Automatic annotation (TrEMBL), chains A, B:
It comes from the Bacteria. SUPFAM superfamilies: Nudix, Winged helix' DNA-binding domain. The lineage of its organism: Bacteria, Pseudomonadati, Bacteroidota, Flavobacteriia, Flavobacteriales. InterPro entries: NUDIX_hydrolase-like_dom_sf, NUDIX_hydrolase_dom, WH-like_DNA-bd_sf, WH_DNA-bd_sf, WHD_NrtR. It comes from Salegentibacter agarivorans. Signal peptide: none annotated. Pfam families: NUDIX, WHD_NrtR. Residues 14-145 form the Nudix hydrolase domain. This is ADP-ribose pyrophosphatase YjhB, NUDIX family.
Amino acid sequence: MKPFQKDFYIQEDKMYVATDCVIFGFDEGNLKLLIFKRRVKPLMGTWSLIGSFVKLDEDVKEAAKRVLKEITGLENVFMEELKTYGTTFRDPGYRTISIAQYALIRIGEYDKELVERHGAHWYDIEDVPDLVLEHNQMVKDALLRIRRKARYKPIGFELLPEKFTIPQLQKLYEAVYHKEIDSRNFRKKVLSLNVLVKLDEKDMSTSRRGAFLYKFDRKKYLKLQESGFNFEIA
Amino acid sequence: MKPFQKDFYIQEDKMYVATDCVIFGFDEGNLKLLIFKRRVKPLMGTWSLIGSFVKLDEDVKEAAKRVLKEITGLENVFMEELKTYGTTFRDPGYRTISIAQYALIRIGEYDKELVERHGAHWYDIEDVPDLVLEHNQMVKDALLRIRRKARYKPIGFELLPEKFTIPQLQKLYEAVYHKEIDSRNFRKKVLSLNVLVKLDEKDMSTSRRGAFLYKFDRKKYLKLQESGFNFEIA
DNA sequence: ACAAAAGTGTTTCTAATACACCCATGG
DNA sequence: CCATGGGTGTATTAGAAACACTTTTGT
């Protein structure tokens, strides 16, 4: 394949561009990270984020989504660029610039069989082992990013199932910010934003009484944004 | 030069990595952008951000600082990665991923002669012409970024001279957020943060009475950060 | 003496925080 | 009937926003 007729920049240096993905999940009150064993030389076999080289005729995000689907079976996942990591000799294999992404997935929905087959594992975020290159830094940076971002964008909902309870949502925020939140104030604030729809169903799995399920209403949220209102939780 | 002994990834695709810099300045109450005429084919001669290809043995930020110095004479400038722009066929010259940066410079300090010699110009931010590739998008994104960032980091001071007055600072925030701010509330808030040092000097250039000059105290700011306090202006 | 920008205080209102009890249910 | 997590209301406090006049000084 020859996507470009002519190379206008032939006197400049070419290098590899890769993308690595910090994949977050949320389960049983804990933030989790999906990592796997590196499949290419050098450093083959060490723990690593999921990543890939970017092909000449492929967008960076496309590449990231490709590997994410390959390993989890998931498509249409929330994913956003974090930043690039590409100091000169970071990668002993050759000059490679990695564009890190972070993704938020609903941990109940991924393809377990696929994940296992690729040697991938979910790790508690507090508990991540040493990763290849500066992937630990990427994780750290990604966590800071979602902490900041979750204050003004409703990204938390990307980690929960479609239907969730208020206590679940609270546990998520508690895990992200690593601190306890007063449940009365939390509920008050979340509901006052008016972006949740209460359903007639209850989740009976965590208490005898059951907790009402809610859905995030994207349309209401967009209206809220338009009106200049400031979305802010926790 | 041959910075790498061996290329482990030879079966993958190599491409160009560039960096473009959204350079902001602040003058006479207006946010300004430094742009210049593109010096390489294709699209030579069209308005463009200042940028460069990244060399094999050069960090991305290094490359950005190199061109910034080349054109403005400035070093030690505030610069931060914005995000990457690298869709497949965005650059007709060849597949190129650009890592956009934004820089904040003190507009009084750059080397005017150098800037002119490179055909660079300061444009009012409201008034930027059509730029090459998706550089207009980069400018837009950078502006959004500094708007968000200025709420919790003291980046505004990077755009002002070492010594500045409160009214000047206010005008800067007014330009960034494009709205008027009540001067009493602004002054109260800024001073309550306790990161400014009042000097014994006055700036007499804008009024008969003169306005006291202040300096931003980075040490006080760091202490503020440590104490978990939330820096927030405007 | 006046024009023009710098500087100063108080009141009002809104939103964050702190805090304790009742509810519903399955076992 | 009781243990467990779900759900509700109020008082206090802190900070944001609104608002108008006095000061200084070169001309």
